Each structure stands twice: as structure tokens, then as C-alpha cells.
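> tool_call: predict_assembly(chains=three)
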Amino acid sequence: MKREIPILLTVICGLLVTLAYFAPAPDPARGIEPSAWQAVNSELLDWATILVAVGFLLGIANLVRINLKQIAAKHPDTPYKVVLLLSMGLFLLFGMAEMHVKWLWTPLLTHLVPSDSIERADGTRIEGYVLERGDKEVTLRTAPDYAVTKVPADSVKSITKRSLKIWIYDKFFAPLQATMFSLLAFYIASAAFRAFRARSVEATLLLAAGAIVMLGQVPLGDELTFGLATPMHAFLMGNVVKAGQRAIIIGASLGVLATGLRIVLGLERSYLSE
Amino acid sequence: MATPRSFDRRWIFLAMGVVVVGLYAAGIRAPLPNSRYVESFHKTIEDLPAGSIVLLSADFDPASAAELEPMYKAVIHHLFQRNLRIVNVATWPAAPPFTRDAFSRIAPQYHKQYGVDWVELGFLVGDDVALGSIGQSLRSAYPTDTLNHSAYDSFPLLRAVGDSCQGIALLVTISAGFPGVLEWIPQLGSRYGVPIITGTTAVQTPPLFAYYPNQIKGFLGAATGATQYLQMVAENTPELQPTRDENQKRMLVQSWAHMLIIGLIVVGNVIYFTGRRKAQA
Amino acid sequence: MIALQAAAAAAVQVADGTAHAAAQVAPAWPASLGSASDWWQGMDALAWRLTPWVATGKIPTAIAIIAFAAVMFASQRKAKRGVEIPIRRLAGLDALDEAIGRATEMGRPVLYVPGTDEIKEIQTIYSMMILRHVARKTAEYGTPLIVPTKNAVVMAFCEEAVRQGCVDAGRPDAFIADNVRYLSDEQFAYCAGIAGIMYRERPAANIYMGMFYAESLILAETGFLHGAIQVAGTARQEQLPFFVAACDYTIMGEEYYAVTAYLTRDPSLVGTIRAGDLVKVAAAALIAVGVTLASIAGSAAALPGTHTLSDVYSRLFG
């Protein structure tokens, strides 16, 4: 049963989703309502979304477990692992506090979440936490007791929202990610110097095509090639590359289709370690 | 003579750094002629009747924001100029800060009302499963919006969308990888017949030629496409002109970076053939 | 509960669909099927009547899937009967053994990167099969195997694959759980983590098998800088040029899907590969037919007697 139940679940869900693909689209003009297949498909998609979200939790739990174990074992990278866990914990704490501003206990609220700056219609400014801004009223929590109150929308001129989570994102995450991505420019230059050799006819053709595409992509290319770079680039991409890409896409898609069919029909069991 | 394997790569990195930083500091602009793919992208938006609903998907993160954020903002300007209504979603978790920043700056310029002219639905977890959910039923995928946490049906714009993307006239996806345009095509384009246009990074551009003009009606390929599109939209949009100028400066930097790479390839081949001749001698 | 609701909704749809269809004007059936236009009329009438039950525009897709499945099952039966189905030699796979042997000689570990996507991605599933093969080889030779993963669920599958590989080699004691490491869900943090492993533990062989994105060049170039022999395999066409440039051997596109069949010689997998090849030949033939029809349709006025073919093309492809 340990083996049969996962296979049965896979087959049933796979067949349901596949059959839902062929369900007729709703057509009010002909009185065709959304079909039951679509309702089932929608439900399964919701379940899948929840499972993926749970996967994030599993990831967090694993990250903590593995790194704590290595810290306890005095792994050489212990300082980096401490930084990893601390930054993950702090971001989670600040982010969850901001998501629950409405319910958070006041001492935690004032210490974990930066307040928004609210400019009133009379020109004065107060600090508080805006929960919802509608057309008629604004819901917020302000000093001294930080109880949830509502004020008329026209009494609020502007709101400057502050977020520690976004600050961390803007000052740490975004620059770090952009930095890692920018390494590609340097690495492609060194890979091009090292690896692009005209060793054979095919390699020479590859080189020439690469050079044409690089020249055609930038304004300087036309200036250096008497205006030939752009039309050559357009011909190459619109004909040769298009044909090659379609062939690769068809081949890869058939591979995906074959494996997908095998999984849906219960023939592929590698996900059960068989 | 140094062989490619023994050559210290840091000289190459230094050369690349000098070219990029030096030319960027020089600030010279390099305008581009428009390609037909960018013109198709532009025309697809121009041809939509006013009031049509456009699904705008932010499928990128800070790593690719340099290439994609300018085109994302330009698209929002263009859509609002044409009085099109926008439902904004994100399939990458790091995209929402970009989307909120963009709409908070751009929507007030056109006096667009939240809930009527545009709605921010935020990030949906699940990769291509999320795309399937959005296609099947936007209401089911997003019970509330992400800015006000108000119910789906409280927004007139969302009530007009309907199930199976009935009310969506166009999908615009600004896409850096997975999930992105190559996943939107089977989930929304082929399945529900929604026309798609896209802006992508350089590495994702070659496969798009295979899908043009059937599955994709137009696309902006990399920073080149972004610059060409900005040139078209910024004519009527003073706020976009600094971004257009910035992108044109970057095109010059990119030009010389490409020249450097071609030069390195030539030098590498010279070293290779010289070494081979010596070995044969 | 959902099943009951679905069944009830389906029953209502049957009754309502019939009633509403009768209220619309249905295309008439043709009196005979003597001409092409009669056939088109018949197909229109059939499609209109089928619309409440099935998306008629997707019927060709269903036919294609059924045809592919039929070819696949026939090929698998043929393979299981013992008929020899040759698969051409894949140099990258033979290089795997060479890479592992080199790492053993140098006394340094093998690094296996199973891609950066989740287990639901088919390339990741195939990567697990290849990992099991690599784990068996490294266990036989007593070479450490390091497997960094980007996803906790993939890590569990990798652990199982490595454990099974060690068991296959008769060396279950060779499995070291700490060598299968979950680094980070974030793409470039994962990439930086692997670069760190390359710097510190200096693997002699790097194997990249699965779905990769922008980190592919960073990984491959960092590995080259440390003098490792590198074998890569992916069906993600945008990343292939980077692997081809930076790695010693690259398994490309649909070769990647043939890898497990090549390694295991399992009749079921070999049959699937053969089915894929047959369908590709059929697809190429259909493309040739389509190109011919499109050319004729484009020049129908100039070529006498081609109006029927032009009509066929217009009906099939709009």
C-alpha cells in the first residue's frame, strides 16, 4: 500500500487535470456553463498551490535544522551559518510583524514595525500604523493606546508608509542579487576568450554567428559594418535561429510529453525511488 | 606567449570593468532604430480599445531589474495613456516591491483610481501551477487584493474579468526566467486564447523568435528592446525621458562591451593558432 | 463532497446543455459527402454539437496525445520482447565515468549539482536517476560525493538516490548524509554556496545535470578556474551555450532525456526514446506537408487545380 497509494493518487490527479484541459469553455451566449471538470481542476490547483507554499515551510525547517547541527558540530563556516540564521530569523520576524499590525501587541508593534507618517488635512503630522485606506475612511492605530480607530478619509492628506522589510530588501537583498547577476558579464568575457576557438568549420560558423548577433544588437555594430549588422542579425534570428529553436522546442516537448504520460499513467516511478 | 589557460583572467575582468564604468561615466547616448518585434509590441497595445482589461505580470527580481524595470514602467505608462485597465500580478516573490513602487508613482499622474482603473493582486506562490490557477479563475487564485486586503468582488475591475480569462484582452508579461512567458504561453495563450506580448532578458530572447507572431504578438528583447520601446513611448511621456536617455547611454556601454568580447575572441584565436603552428613546426 | 458536487453539476449540465443547444440555431448536416464543402459542413455541424461536451478546438491535441501514447506503448512492448533498439553513443555519459575515475585518482571529491528547479520539473526527476548511477560509481571507487541542493524536497530525493546508489554498489556504509546539503532556495545564494564548496573542498569532477538558469555560467566558469573536469546536461536551451563554452562535455536538449535509457538500458525507457524519435520523424513529415500546402495556398491564383488544396490549408490553419 505504501507504494500503491502514491501511484494511485498520481494517476487520478493527473488524469483529472488532463481531462479538464479538454472541457468546453463557458459560453453564456449558448448557455454553456463552467463545467464540473473545471471546478475539480480549480480545486486541485488550489491544493497544489497550498502544497508548494508548505514546501517553503519545509525549506525553512530544513535550513534551520541543518545549520544548527553544523553550528553545534563547530563547522569551519560557523560564523556564516550564524549570520544566515540570524538574518533569516530577523527578516521573518519583521515581515510577520508588518503583516499582523492589526493584531500585534503594542510593545511588540512599536519595537518591531516602523510607524507610518500621516499628514492631516490641517497640516499636522502624526505617527501611526495605517491598516486600511478606503474612499470614506482610514483605519489606523495611533498613540497613545494604539487601539484600532477609524477617521474620515478627507481628514488625511497623505500617508508615507515605512517598512523595515522593504528597507532590508532595498539595501541588502536587491544589491546582493544584482551583484551576483553582474558577475555574468565578467565570466562571459573570460569564457569567450578561453573557449571560442575556430577549431573546425562548425566552430567557425558558430563564432561568426555569435559575432553577427553581438554586432546587430548594439548601435555601434551598424556603424562598423556599413549598416549590414542589423539586417544580418534580423535574418539570422528571424530565420536560422527560429528554425533551430522550433526544432529544439519540439524535441524537448516530446521528451516532456513522454515522461508526463508515463507519470500520469503510473508507469514512471522514479519519484518513489524505484 | 601566454596560453589561454595560463593567462590571468583578472586582466580580462579589469578590462571589462574599465570599459563599463568608464563609458557609463562618460554618459554618451546611442539611439537605436526600432525593430519590427518592438513595433509589434507597441502596436498590439495601441490597437486595444479604451477600457480593455490587460493582465500585467511582473515575473522578475532585482537581478534582472536593470534590464526589465524600465520596460515595466514604460508599459504601465503606455497602458494608462491608452486608457486601458490593468490587473497586476506577480509570479516571482521578489517582484512586488517593484510593482508597488511603479504604480504608486505612475498611477497618480494619470489620475487613475485604484479598484476601477487598476488593481494590485500581488505574488501568487506555485510557479506554473499559479499560472494555471490564474487562467482557470482569477477569483479563486486571489480572494483579496494585496494593497487593501479587500474582497475580490469589491473591485468593479475584477468583477469584469470573469473565469477562464474571459474579460482579459491582453497579457503583458515582463519575464526574467521561470515562471515566465514560456509558461504563460501554454497556460493562458494556447489554453484560453489570450494574446500575449512580453519583455524579456537577453538570454531568454532567442526562443521567442520561434513563437512570433502566433503565440506572441510582439516582444522586447533585452536592454535593446527596452531602449527601442522607451524611445517610442517617451515621445509623449516626459517622465520617461530620463529613463530613455539612461538606457541609450547603456546601449553605448553595451556596444563597447560587445566589442571587447569580440576582441578577446580574436586575440584568443590568434594565440591558439600561433601556438598550434609552433607546436607543428 | 467535491466528487458529488461535480457529478451533480455534470448531470445539470447534460440537461441544460441539451436544452440550450436546442434553443440555438445549429448548422444543418450536409445532404451528402460528395464534395469538399460537404465535408466541411459536416465537420462544422459535428463540432457545433460537440461543443457543450468537449472543447472542439482541442480535439487535434487529444488525437496527437493518443497517437503518441499508442506509439510509445507499442515501442515499449517491442523493447520488452527483447528486440534490440540501439541508442547512439553519448560522449557526455561516457565522460561521467572518466570524470569520476579522475577524481578518485586525485583523491578529491565529485560534485554533483542536480539543477535548480523543484522535483516536479521532469529534468530534476531524470537528474535523480543519473545521480543514483553516479552515486553507485563513487561508492564503488570510494570517492566522496557532494550534492548541494536548492530545495528541501529535492534534497530528500537526492538523499534517497545517493543511498540507493550506495546500496546498488554493495556499499551502504558509503552513504554520508552530510554530503547531501540543502544550501538555499534563493538562486544566487545557492550559486554562491556552490562556488564556496568549489573553493574550499576543490572537487576534481563537477557534474551538472538538470534544469539551470542564470547561475549556469557562474558555476561552470568557477569550476573551470579550479581545474575540475566538467560534464553538464540540460534541456534548457538558453543555458546550453554557456555549458558548451565552459564545460568539457555537454549533453544537450533531448539527449538529456535519453540519458537514463542509455544508462539503465531499461526496455521501458528505451521504448519511450524510440517512440519520441518516430514521432519526430512524423512531425518533420507533417511540417513538410504543411509547408507545401502553405506554398500552394499562397500561390493558388497562379497554379491551376490547386483550389481544393488551398481550401484544405485554409480550413486547417485559418
